[in-house]
Specification:
This is PhoD-like phosphatase metallophosphatase domain-containing protein. By secondary structure, the chain is of the alpha+beta class. It is about 15% helix and about 30% strand.
Amino acid sequence: MQVAAFSVGPLVGDCGRTSVRILGRADIAAATARGKAMLGRIQWRPRPVPGQGETDWTLPLAFRMNSNFDGSGVVVLNDLLPGVEYEYRAGWVTDENVAGEQLDWARITPGRFRTAPADDTAPVSFLFGSCCYRFFDLNGLVSDDRADKTFGAMLTHQRQYGDVDFVMLCGDQIYADPLNRLGAISAEEQYLSLYRKVFGQPNMRELMATTPTYMILDDHEIEDNWPASASKEDWVGKLPAALKAYQIYQASHGPAMPLDPSGRYLDCDPDHLWYSFRRGCVDMFVMDVRTERHLAETARERMMISGRQEQALVDWLLDGSDRVKLIVSPVVVFPDQRRWFRRKDAWEGFVAQRARILEVIRRNRLQRVAFLSGDVHASLVAALHSRQGGQDVTMYNLVCSGLFWPTALMAFRWYSPMVDGKGRLATGGLWSRYRVELLKGLYSRDAFARVDVTRDGFRYRLYDRRGDPLPEFWLERSWQG
């Protein structure tokens, strides 16, 4: 039997030392009247090394695909070796009873991934960015490939250097409201259809099939500035529909989705969307800054994240490991915008909670901390300087946005005159403790970033949408300042 290619995927998600999650989606309704069936197939092997011959593929592993999750399935591969590059081939069949030796893989293009190293001090390299707008024609199809060209440039970069450990997509992977509320969608099938079109683009698809990819949502996965303008109907209609689609296409292959006790398959829906993971010398905490917001009238009561998430972040920061701590916050933590441009949607509108988080870092003199952000359709690196007990404490915010943002919407970008990039952090009553420094200026065009991290420091390198380097915005810093 011919193994058929997925319509979305395969997509390599969370990839640890000995396991990996891979997502695929197909129109299984054409093959079975049941809601779910063991129609997925995958086999894998260590990637052949030139001159050493090939190892045998494993026996095909069947995995479940579920029509209640848009025909998708996530397979978990276990018992892998650390720091090894694997290749795999994955697809689906129309008969769940077909034997492995009867499978024909001729139409399947192999993907690949590299497991995390066993060394907890190993350097880490990753690509990151956010905000990828797409144009659609009157038939609802992607009508402009400029967004996918950015992923093509990232794919070329990975092929050229071969040392990228993972990709981090920091929000607005889709735009469910491309014309703001005028063109916003609200039904579950609309969200699902949008994901199929976006994640089905060729370059994005190949990048995600060959490089572990982590994701988190921002507002446009639901609607602009969610939940500032949400109605009662939106909370019971639009939000559940958006989160169901998000869970299927962005969360299911990541650490937020619980596995069964044996770690072999997805067990249940997540009760929160934030998550953490570890690779080499880096610990990552990926914040959900959208679905837990509390929009109180007073600044002290406003919450960007829930108290539970805040406590989890604090516990993670204070685990005593002295490891590099990278915190993904889809909205920028600092710098603030200048007074005339400030808005309540970003952390500058949630100053009390931001102050608590920054104070944890300052008071405990944590020296290897940086935030990764998007949202603002510009790229920059900012430092936040403070002191505690006679010791300098510096943290960083690395920003890359957007991967593609239309020229027609140039007004909706950050520009240098809008940003308070020098002086004291002006909000939250902490002006005497924190000094902001904008490093290397601000780039207000499409770009993706590469970050190389060691225990000693980091290097931030920016590339334009075509993959050409932008060395005037490159930066290398020691964690000790």
